[in-house]
Amino acid sequence: MSINMLSKTSRCVKYFGSNLKASVGLAARNTTGREVSSAGVTRDFSSTVTEATFPTKEYKLHRLDTPPASESTLTRDDALKFYQQMQTIRRMETAAGNLYKEKIIRGFCHLYSGQEACCVGMEAGIRPDDAVITAYRAHGWTYMRGVPVLGVLAELTGRISGCAKGKGGSMHMYTDNFYGGNGIVGAQIPLGAGIAFAQKYQGKDNVTIALYGDGAANQGQLFEAFNMAKLWDVPAIFVCENNGYGMGTSVERASASTDYYTRGDYVPGIYVDAMDVLTVREATKYAADYCRSGKGPILLELATYRYSGHSMSDPGTSYRSRDEVQEVRQKRDPIMLFKEKILTSNLATADEIKAVDKQVRKEVDSAVERSRNDPEIELEALYEHVYVDQAKDFPIRGCQSITSGVAQ
Ligand SMILES: Cc1ncc(C[n+]2csc(CCOP(=O)(O)OP(=O)(O)O)c2C)c(N)n1
Ligand SMILES: [Mg+2]
């Protein structure tokens, strides 16, 4: 039984900063105020509210007259859901980092820790049938688009339970309406414009989110894609995840202008504080409405931070100080801020948060175990899935030695 179904009414609170501004009456949720969930977790509702309203962080606008919503109403269900999603991604990435250090994951591995509010907030602002395409920092997005933790971690260890059967690894994960995971910096942006073009061409009511990093933001191919997207007014939400650094370089050293939300020129843009998941959600809803109404592309700059180095081979300390990373962790961490928010507003109790943490730990630990021990695909399966409906003996150049036993 969902929380909402149980509640006859509710307490709703409105927050402005830390001050409680308004609250409306409390009515019984059920006779006992307690529920045992299907997971066996006892929830005590007596002290919680069903929804609360928070101010969003200030947006900066480029070629737009009205900003996204200045307030965001959060239900109890969504509060626990967003917390669980962000915490799962954090723990999954920590597990991936550890597996990499053990040399069980090989090759590239780019972690998303610190940036969780971006994908969780954006997913909450679009629909599952909308499309997403991102760069190589793809694990969090893969999970948010519906791949379970096992599908991500086993992909990283190259095992059969991986979402690409272990053939893709860190940068090449896919699922329905999720077009990867792309290793070439910036290359996913023209592809994203193409997906949006197809949506418009086919008369669909969908939008495409195409994400790139600050390091990709100065590439020529982005501006070519912006031009065509605006020329044909395709429903593309271009998103610059500005985590402050490219591969070993700060944005200030690499960019003549770091106002990335203005860099689409004739494409309107919004600067978004992406350490706050609700601010991201409202900006995304706004952008999706904008695109769906036929106005063409829009650009969001999500100001965020990554805790790890660029990849596992970068300790991430030669171009920024440990103190800086520590300070963000202590003062601006998106999960910590959100947890504080839902606890102080009584959307969730400390016990419920603990129960979520426990469940997340269990899921990630069991996915780690299987990702270590699952088999790899059969050798012959390496040349499958190159083409749609590929004939059994279809020759793939470079793979004949495997299939025919003849060295090439
Ligand atoms: C065309 C191309 N050039 C260079 C690289 C190497 N490279 C990989 S990531 C990266 C920096 C990208 O930084 P950013 O876009 O800010 O993304 P972040 O890693 O911060 O998420 C570079 C130069 C590449 N993969 N592709
Ligand atoms: Mg970056």
From TrEMBL:
Keywords: Oxidoreductase, Pyruvate, Thiamine pyrophosphate, Transit peptide. Gene3D superfamilies: 3.40.50.970. Its EC number is 1.2.4.1. The pyruvate dehydrogenase complex catalyzes the overall conversion of pyruvate to acetyl-CoA and CO(2). It comes from the Eukaryota. The lineage of its organism: Eukaryota, Metazoa, Spiralia, Lophotrochozoa, Annelida. It catalyses: N(6)-[(R)-lipoyl]-L-lysyl-[protein] + pyruvate + H(+) = N(6)-[(R)-S(8)-acetyldihydrolipoyl]-L-lysyl-[protein] + CO2. The keyword Secreted does not apply. Its cofactor is thiamine diphosphate. This is Pyruvate dehydrogenase E1 component subunit alpha. Transmembrane segments: none annotated. The keyword Transit peptide applies. One of its GO terms (biological process) is pyruvate decarboxylation to acetyl-CoA. GO terms for molecular function: pyruvate dehydrogenase (acetyl-transferring) activity.
